[in-house]
Amino acid sequence: MIRKKTYRPSMSNDNMKIIEDLVINEEFCILATSNGIEPWTSLMTFFADHAAMKFYFLSHKNSQKSKNIKRNPHVAIHIDRREHNLSLTIAGVYSPIKKQQTAEAIKHLIPIKHPELKDFIEDDNVELIRIQGQNAQLMHGFSDKFEIKLKNS
């Protein structure tokens, strides 16, 4: 019999540690966008500045998600760890990167977590998208819910 490690969030500090752990260690998320009428979801790799709750994604400039984000900057990011019955939803807003130097620095960090994206980053049709997390909801199972307004939002 395989025993799964279970998380039992009880205090806000414990919950924040779980949120940080999910953001730092999970490789994939679902990015939910909308054009204002219809929702759209995309399975994405991501890189995050967990202290500032800024999330970075790479996308083709003409993709549906990129078009949606420019029309409607409000998004949701869903990260889960199903084997532990954990689910994290972050509401955030698109925050364009204005300094090329900042974008280049982030582009150099992404392959550390996702080496498979090294060539994709260099494609001229690919853009770096930054989302500033504003609120988070951590679910443990179906009824244990923790919500928090994120700092720096």
From TrEMBL:
<dbReference type="Pfam" id="PF01243">
    <property type="entry name" value="PNPOx_N"/>
</dbReference>
<feature type="domain" description="Pyridoxamine 5'-phosphate oxidase N-terminal">
    <location>
        <begin position="19"/>
        <end position="106"/>
    </location>
</feature>
<dbReference type="InterPro" id="IPR011576">
    <property type="entry name" value="Pyridox_Oxase_N"/>
</dbReference>
<dbReference type="InterPro" id="IPR012349">
    <property type="entry name" value="Split_barrel_FMN-bd"/>
</dbReference>
<protein>
    <submittedName>
        <fullName>Pyridoxamine 5'-phosphate oxidase-related FMN-binding protein</fullName>
    </submittedName>
</protein>
